[in-house]
Design goal:
By secondary structure, the protein is mainly alpha-helical. Helix content is 66%, strand content 0%. It has three helices and no strands. α1 runs antiparallel to α2. The protein starts with 5 loop residues before the first helix and ends in a 29-residue tail after the last helix.
Length: 112
C-alpha cells in the first residue's frame, strides 16, 4: 500500500521554516542583547575595574556578570548552528514539490 501524503510533507516543511525563523530571531535578539550590554559596560569599564581592584566585591561581581553575559551572547551567536540544529539543514530552501518522496511501504525491501 503506497499512500502519498503530500500535504503532510508541505506542513512539515512549513513547520521547519517557522521553527528556523523563530530560532534565528532568538539568536539575533541574544546577539543584540550582548552588543547592548557591551556598549553599556564600555563607558563604566575603567571605573569598575579600578574599584574592583581596590577590593569592592560588588563591583567585581558586576564586572564578572557583565563579561559573562557578553560572552554567552556572543558564543551562542558563533555556535548557533550547534545550538539550533536546523540552521545546518540545507533542504529547507527547497520547495515542497522538490522534497524526496517518503517511502511509506511496510516492507522496505526493493520491489523485484
Amino acid at each position: 500500500m503506497n499512500t502519498n501524503i503530500k500535504w503532510l510533507d508541505v506542513w512539515r516543511v512549513r513547520w521547519a521554516r517557522v521553527k528556523r525563523g523563530v530560532e534565528l530571531v532568538i539568536s539575533g535578539l541574544l546577539l543584540v542583547v550582548g552588543i547592548l550590554l557591551s556598549v553599556a559596560l564600555l563607558p563604566e569599564l575603567p571605573g569598575l575595574v579600578s574599584v574592583a581592584l581596590t577590593g569592592d566585591g560588588e563591583a567585581a561581581r558586576t564586572l564578572f556578570v557583565c563579561v559573562a553575559g557578553i560572552a554567552v551572547c556572543v558564543l551562542q551567536w558563533l555556535w548557533r548552528a550547534t545550538i539550533y540544529p536546523s540552521f545546518g539543514v540545507i533542504h529547507l530552501r527547497r520547495r515542497p514539490h522538490e522534497l524526496p518522496a517518503l517511502d511509506t511501504r511496510r516492507d522496505r525491501r526493493p520491489a523485484s
